[in-house]
Amino acid sequence: MRSVMRALREVCVRAHVLSRTGVCETSTSLRQGHTGASNMTGGEGGLPAAHLDGEHSWMCGSSAAVLSAVRGHVRVLQNFISEEEEQAFLTELEPGLKRKRYEWDHWDDAIHGFRETERLQWGGVCAAVVERIRAQAFPQGCPLLGPVHVLDLDKTGFIKAHVDSVKFCGSTIAGVSLLSDSIMRLVHEQNPAERVDLLLQRRSLYILRDEVRFKFTHEILKDEDSYFSGRRIPRLRRISVICRNLPH
Ligand SMILES: O=C(O)CCC(=O)C(=O)O
Question: What UniProt keywords apply to this chain's record, in alphabetical order (predicted)?
Answer without folding.
Answer: Dioxygenase, Oxidoreductase
